[in-house]
Amino acid sequence: MIKKAEFVTSSQKYTDCPPPFKPEYAFIGRSNVGKSSLINMISNKKALAKTSSTPGKTQLINTFEMDDTWYLTDLPGYGFAKVPKGVRGGFNKMIYDYIEFRKNLVNVFLLIDSRHKPQEIDLQFIQWLGKKGVPFSIVFTKLDKISSTEYQKNLNNYKTELLKTWEELPVIFSSSASSQIGKLEILGYIDSLNEH
Ligand code: GDP
C-alpha cells in the first residue's frame, strides 16, 4: 500500500522531468481508458490524477512521487479524434521521446479498456515499444463493466493478436478502479522491479 503520494511536476518534455535518480513507472492509454482512476486507486488518493472529461486536455507529462522511493508518470491519453493533426504530431513526439530516452523509466503500463476488441492504435503502440525494446505490461481496465465470460473472450483475442508478432506475452493485469481490483498486483509488480 502506498502511504505517501505527492504531485511533483508537470513537464512538456522528458528533459524537464525531475532528475532521473529514482525508478519510474509510466501509465499510458487511450483517452478515457480509466487511467486517472487507476492512478488514484493505486496511490490511495481520490484525486491525485485529475480525471479529465475533456479528452486530450492535459497534454503534459505529470510526475508523482510514491513513498519517497519511486516516480509514477501520468502520460497524456492518446487516440482522441478531435485534436488537429499538427498538434497530434507534437504530442506523439513528446511521448515517444519520453519513453525512448527517459533514463530511469523501468516499465510502461499500457492501459486498455477490457470491453474493446484489439484496436489498431494500441497495437501500433505495442509494436513501437517492441521495436525500441521498452519493457511494458498491459493493464485491462473497467473489469466491472463486463462479464467474466466476455472478458476471457476479449483477453484471448488480445493474446492471439499479440502472439502473431511476439514470441512471448507481456505481463497482463486486469483492473477495476470502481471495485479496487488489480491494485495489489500492480503495486506488487512495481515493488518486485524496484528490488532489482
Ligand atoms: P482517463 O481519461 O483515462 O484518465 O479516464 P478516467 O479515469 O477519467 O475515466 C474515464 C471514465 O471512466 C470516467 O467516467 C470514470 O468514472 C470511468 N471509469 C474509470 N475507471 C473505471 C472502472 O474501473 N470502472 C467503471 N465502471 N468506470 C470507470
Automatic annotation (TrEMBL):
Q: Any idea what job this protein has?
A: Necessary for normal cell division and for the maintenance of normal septation.
Entry keyword set: Cell cycle, Cell division, GTP-binding, Magnesium, Metal-binding, Nucleotide-binding, Septation
Query: In terms of domain of life, where is this protein from?
Result: Bacteria
User: What is this protein's record name?
Assistant: Probable GTP-binding protein EngB
Q: Name one GO molecular function term.
A: GTP binding
Record InterPro entries: G_ENGB_dom, GTP-bd, GTP-bd_ribosome_bio_YsxC, P-loop_NTPase
| Annotated source species | Faecalibacter macacae
**The EngB-type G domain, residue ranges:** 21-196
Gene behind the chain: engB
Record Pfam families: MMR_HSR1 (PF01926)
